[in-house]
Amino acid sequence: EVQLVESGGGLVQYGGSLRLSCAASGFTFSMFFMSWVRQAPGKGLEWVSTITNGGIADYADSVKGRFTISRDNAKNTLYLQMNSLTPEDTAVYYCAKGAGSSRYVPSARGQGTQVTVSS
Fold it and tell me: What is the model's pLDDT at position 63?
């Protein structure tokens, strides 16, 4: 059974930083692309970033240059370093198994972690 457990969310001020983590289990983590997606209040799911099993990253335009996705295959853990946060980044952030894009959000996701950015 795929399990994805996110952590690291919280309340941060405008311009601040947070680092999200996702502990993965139930599958061979190192073999899969992994993604972060988010859902802002009252909005649909939005793809944020994907990293290949080899460490190549892709980002949504809205976070490019501010967010960095990374992974530690030895620890079965996915990360998202978020810098220069704005209130528009307020959302529940989900770790997801598989690749995503601006047109597709992977369905296998964790329970999410709340990120709130105050202005």
Answer: 98
